[in-house]
Amino acid sequence: MQVISVANSDTSKLCTSQGRLIVLTGPSGVGKGTLMRLLLQRHPDLYYSVSATTRAPREGEIDGQHYHFISRAQFEKLVARGEFLEWAEFAGNYYGTPKTPVQNQVDAGKNVLLEIELEGARQVRKSFPQAFSIFILPPSIAELEKRIRGRGQDSPEAIAKRMHRAIEEISAADEFDLKIVNDDLEKALSAIESALFEESAITSNANPRTKHTHQVVCVNDSGFIQHHEQSVSS
Ligand code: 5GP
After folding, report:
1. Which residue ranges form the domains of the chain, and what is each CATH number?
2. pTM tops 0.70
């Protein structure tokens, strides 16, 4: 059995007078998009940061709503002008978070949700150490591949790139404040909501969430991800 990650849930990061930056990361196909859409539906006060990308729009994707679809030349110009909070190349395309709208919303006290990949999450952690980061894990690697193939949106080469990247990303899950296995959408959503919105739970000493916990994520020989929490005596 391979132990992937051990991380502490630093709930103190959620207690800030400014808006909070919430980073949602996880391998392609893990269901981040669905979780994010449900979160936004249930919490319309959250601000979703629309990224820019050089990827071609998929069927049904709307420019300015799902992404700002731009050319590589336009993207590189924006990088040179320092217009991105973070950016990364993923599976052959560029993706980036426009800086100004996010900064404005955070300054105005709004909670901002970024749905980004690992390299971007690392850059955000450097410039916004108070950001709260969540990593979404699939129930297993095999299930993830099934979901990516089942979407029918990517070529075999793109699927191979995404699977390769997925394994890299999963092995970095311990860098995140909270890890959630998305084997049941409703449960995963509730876990995110309680981390983000149960302020009283976060600040009360009586609540177990304020105790140091040690989250252990393992992949067994069949590629299944197991997740459990251990109390850590301090
Ligand atoms: P997709 O092509 O499936 O929409 O997205 C591919 C990956 O890019 C996903 O993991 C998604 O979270 C990530 N992504 C989307 N927008 C951004 C962004 O602005 N910055 C970074 N670093 N990654 C992004």
Report:
1. 3-49+109-233 (3.40.50.300)
2. yes
